[in-house]
Amino acid sequence: MISVTPDFLTIGRAAMLLAMSRTSEEETEIKKLLHLCGMKYCVTEVKGVDQDFKNKFTRNLLGAALSNGIIEKEPPSMHALLHASLEARRNLFPDEPVITSSAMKVSIVRNEEWICVALFGDCGMHPITCHDRAGLGMSHL
Question: How far apart are CA 96 and CA 86, in angstroms?
Answer without folding.
Answer: 14
